[in-house]
Design brief:
By secondary structure, the protein is α+β, with helices and mostly antiparallel strands. The chain is 30% helix and 21% strand. It is built from twelve helices and 19 strands. The mean pLDDT is 97. The structure holds ligand BES and manganese (II) ion (MN) (2 copies). The site of ligand BES has 17 residues, from β15.
Length: 446
Amino acid sequence: MDTDRLLRELTEFLRIPSVSTDPSHNADCRAAAEWVAGELRRLGCREVQFLASGTHPVVWGVGPEVPGAPTLLIYGHYDVQPAEPLGEWTTPPFEPTVRDGKLFARGAADDKGQVFCLLKAIEARSGRPPVNFRFLIEGEEEHGSRVLFELLRREPERTRADAVLIADMAYIAPRWPAVYTTLRGLCYAEISVRTAKSDLHSGEFGGAAPNAHEELARLLGRLKTPDGKVHVPGLYASVKRPSKVELATWKRLPFREAEFLKHRVQAQALTGLKAYSVLERLWALPTFEIHGITGGFMGNGAKTVIPAEATAKVSLRLVPNQKLKMVERQLAAAVRRFAPKHVQASVKFLHGADPATVKVTHPAFKLLDQAFREVVGRGTVPARAGGSIPVVPALGKGGAPVILTGIGLPDDRLHAPNEKLDLKQLWDGIRVFGRFYELLGALDVS
Ligand code: BES
Ligand code: MN
Ligand code: MN
């Protein structure tokens, strides 16, 4: 494997600041799509198209036809999350840098490095794998995948395949590759409160006028109880507990709560519902998080003002059996109910995703397990994921098994400063997926 060349090529891809949630980066998203399209052409795709959006196109590719061979649809995303706060990066997020065998850059693990891995694996072994490749690499995953959703609703035949492969996740621990059986869903919203026509002098009016920040703080405080239970009426009604068997298998995973607190969370204590294990809280229970609060005065110096408006960005993670549409209604109702009558409270939904469940019984899962076993010495353990990939339910609608896996490690710092990918994981990953394609090619799909 020519690792120097591969590293140069991946560096080129990672240099493009394809931040999908920020319109000032639209041209960069387009450039990242061009980069992917160039790779697909180089791989011999008969068809390479930009679909559905001028600024964040879905890159569609159809590999060389191999009659009678299985069809594998590869899904991934070329967009990344914003890199702020920039001051916390040891080296700038879009100047990929190798330190200590790790490649540091925004998107190194989520998901450009992993898309790169899946593409380069096609050429990892001598001779092309006998697989009919299809590619669906989108540029809006970090922004809710609206364009791709619409596309798949209009053209569901794009997902026709014998299997779908997604590498956008991590090993469960170093040397422990995983295959994921569920993803959480997401309900992202802005909650705003207005308390008066305009801001007021806090001396003239303080003591007798309502304060938007105070009302918002109280409202948010009511949406979760101090023990960590989300206080949205009806939210838990459809939540199913994992089976005893599944909970027992989680106990055998290489996961230690104390170690998770000390090295990953790096806080003073873990929070949440103490009656449940940490893995159950991360994988099988809904959450409510506040992402940011704006309004009032945050400029330099001091200003004595009573703000008339305040807004919070919040989200709930959803677990299998919950439905986004239902949770949206429940959240809106809770806000209406908890806001006092003199406060105008409103909820605006920004994006979201249903949770996903995949059965891991299809023979393709055995082949992936075998490929990992051969290359890294251990097969895939079934696990659940706390994160979300909005289009996964839509990708599975046609009946193809959706293989959720990845080459990241738990300490890759996705969405955070100093995101990285261990190069050993990448080189191993290229060998693993190369071997997987070869094994899949031999699968009888007639
Ligand atoms: N790759 C992640 C999803 C992920 C992360 C799955 C960790 C499993 C473990 C993906 O890029 C992501 O960040 N998704 C967003 C989706 C949202 C913006 C709609 C998420 O989960 O916040
Ligand atoms: Mn991702
Ligand atoms: Mn992400």
